[in-house]
Amino acid sequence: MIMHLLEDNISINLGTLIAATRQERGLTQDELAKGICSIPYLSKLENDKIEPNQEIVSLLLQRLGFSVDQLIQEQQQLNVDILKWYQAILERDDANIEAYHDQLTKSTKNIQNISLIHNFKLAKLRYFLYKQDAIAAKELIKYFTKLKSKLTLSQSLYFYCFYGIYYCIINQHEKGIESFKEAEKISQRLRYEEPELIYFLALTYSHLYNSSVAIVYGFRALDLLNNSSQFLRSIDCQLIIATNLYRIGQYEQADQYLQNTLKIAHSLKLDHVRTIAYHNLGNLYVKRGELEKALGYYQESLSINDPKADSSFYTTYCIGEIYIELGQIEKAKDLIGHAMNKLSLLNPKSSLLLKLELLKLEILGNDQQIEQFLEHRSLPLFREKSDWRYLIDCYEKLAKINAKNFLYKKSSHYFQLANDTRKKIMY
């Protein structure tokens, strides 16, 4: 069961419920208690200062129009629906995601069960992260941060896991790892491995280019995901494993994973997955030095992808690099110019626009222009975005330009920055 640690976490605080319902219906303590118990007893019950007497509680609830069994059943069903909502999010079932969102937003309005409220808000936090709504997610993170000490261990596990996802969405992957590691500590105390947590550890280490650790978590996540029948996430996991395998030179194994992913994606009509798999096959064959084959895979990815998606422009950038490497300069110019014009209209603040512009300058071959562009535009932006891999490329380009002009001290400085950045993402 997905998120099963929260499955039974719905104990009802009857005193709080009685107080809230009484006030909602405009009854005084005297009116509710009359003939059932004393006012002081009711006051202590409502403020959770006395162990509730089941007979008295039943009578008070009857006067309010409730029964204990009915309340338990309703709240158990509500918790089941919250967990189904979370499951729909993981399965990317957009129709059910929105249906549960609307249903639960209404049905939880008058709930006084604090554990149930926390479960709902945790699922809502995951919903905002799924929608890439970092602003709304941040508000819920503030809510949970204020009451961390009141969360159960299982709720804390999911909070730190989701907090890590939030950091990754805003491109703060190192902080994301810190939150995931907090969740992992709690997971060890609970003696339970949450597949989603292990998957995101693999994904985040992959973003940081720490391939060896990404592969270890990737295989752990893949096993957990397959055992819990989370097949879509399992496909994502195979892509992470394949990406990091080719990064460390395990080309044959990476190719097997990518080809297997393509077969599954084709049979399930998962075009988004096919786009990523073809792109990664392109990356793999660039690494192997087989540029024509890489070009074919990139073009296959581009033919399937949404032409307005950032990933489409990144594939175009990779194709442009191959054209330059193959000496097909006019093709590269036309491709890059078209992509820049289109992207500047769709997303003028995209960092990809800057990468394409640099590629265009490299075609022209003016080292002075390239150096100024790298120092004054590329480096500040990619430091801000923590794009460590591209920062390394920029530092190395600057080092080579300065070495070419016999400025060895400056060249050495940039090589050192590249090595320091490489260590940062490896450890």
Automatic annotation (TrEMBL):
Keywords: Repeat, TPR repeat
Alphabetized GO MF terms: DNA binding
InterPro entries recorded: Cro/C1-type_HTH, Lambda_DNA-bd_dom_sf, TPR-like_helical_dom_sf, TPR_rpt, Ycf3
Superkingdom of origin organism: Bacteria
Repeat region (TPR), residues: 275-308
CDD domains according to UniProt: HTH_XRE
UniProt keyword Cell inner membrane, yes or no: no
SUPFAM superfamilies per the UniProt record, alphabetical: lambda repressor-like DNA-binding domains, TPR-like
Domain HTH cro/C1-type: 18-71
A Pfam family of this chain: TPR_12
Name of the featured protein: HTH cro/C1-type domain-containing protein
Organism of this sequence: Priestia koreensis
